[in-house]
Amino acid sequence: MHNEIASLFRDTGHDDRALVTGIEQLADRRGPDIYSQALRILAGLDLPPADAEKHWEAMLNHCRKFFPSKNECHLRAALVDYFHREARILRDPRILEAHDLEEVRRASITDGLTGLYHQGYFKARLEHQFNWKKRGPRDRFAIVLLDLDHFKQYNDHCGHLAGDDALRRVAEIIRLNIRDYDVAARYGGEEFALLLFRVAPRQALLIAERIREMMEKTVFIGQELMESGNLTISAGVATYPEDAQSPRELLTQADQRLYQAKQRRNRVVPSESDRRRVDRRRVRSIVEVVPCDGGNDQSSPGVTTDLSRQGLSVDCGVSFQPGSTVQVRFRKPFWNREAATEATVRRIRRDEESGIVHLGLEFRELGDTIDALTGSRAQDRRDEGMKTTGPSPA
């Protein structure tokens, strides 16, 4: 019932006539307690339902006496005058100003802990976005579902007060990485949701990645007590129109990708259209992996299993901490040219039988060099083949 009256004030609070009509219609369905809630919001009065209904009718008659025209309805002015002069129960007369009304509106659609929107508002905006008839064919948008990794463990080790503080800090990180007109919501518990307007799949992925990276670098109170050593976040991205044609389908796609991200933690699974752009190549060759911290410059050889502009998977005999920085060196004769780049350790899996450590590394920057490293080698092999076979005789 409280949500209904709050929604009514949110939608019609600046139109007195519509507000009065809405309150009376709601009271017809829900009973006189609606009048109690309305007067509590409008004038700070706490009246029993029966008294509230009686005073509501008297106040409306008072309003009609001062404003007989059917086109005029100055509810707040009549309310203050009636309760102060006639009923004499309003000792500190005040009118709910626009600022106060905005506070009421915000309270009805936001989460009290984080200040982000709540799930109901997020879904309503998503529904509206699909139903908006003026949307052009190029008005793409995306949703991102995010979930804190091992948050229950953090709460258990650090306490719920620290957990609440962590949720507020996550909300602030999210605000810093989206635009003013995007929608950010606390979707439930430790889960968050974003509605990003006018973005391509790649842009949505970059926004989610920025949030993930900032989370990874943020120091939360007591995080050293966790097995993973820090509090991280995972995310799934889905975009319109590439991934779905309805709100339910889009949420389902994002939720499925979030589930995939949670299997490895601290990662973002992009929309299908963006994932197809990641050119992963099965390349088995040798690289050197060198830690960038601790003053240890000893390199460890590793065998690559796949490679892309974003990163590579490598098998080696040395383990690293998740989130640590390493240098990856590409050397001749294993590669056509020599290159080096820094990378962040994203995934670690140890094969207990063989002792081999499988690392997933994300490049900080390498870009087109990957094409040169792999493409040129392929061209060299083609050239070598031509030398061996030779041209056909004339």
UniProtKB/TrEMBL annotation:
It is an enzyme of class 2 (transferase). GO terms for molecular function: cyclic-di-GMP binding; diguanylate cyclase activity. GO terms for cellular component: plasma membrane. Residues 373-394 are annotated as: Disordered. GO terms for biological process: cell adhesion involved in single-species biofilm formation; negative regulation of bacterial-type flagellum-dependent cell motility. InterPro entries: Diguanylate_Cyclase, GGDEF_dom, Nucleotide_cyclase, PilZ_domain, Rev_trsase/Diguanyl_cyclase. SMART domains: GGDEF. It catalyses: 2 GTP = 3',3'-c-di-GMP + 2 diphosphate. CDD domains: GGDEF. SUPFAM superfamilies: Nucleotide cyclase (SSF55073), PilZ domain-like (SSF141371). Its EC number is 2.7.7.65. It comes from the Bacteria. Residues 139-273 form the GGDEF domain. Pfam families: GGDEF, PilZ. This is diguanylate cyclase. It comes from Geoalkalibacter subterraneus.
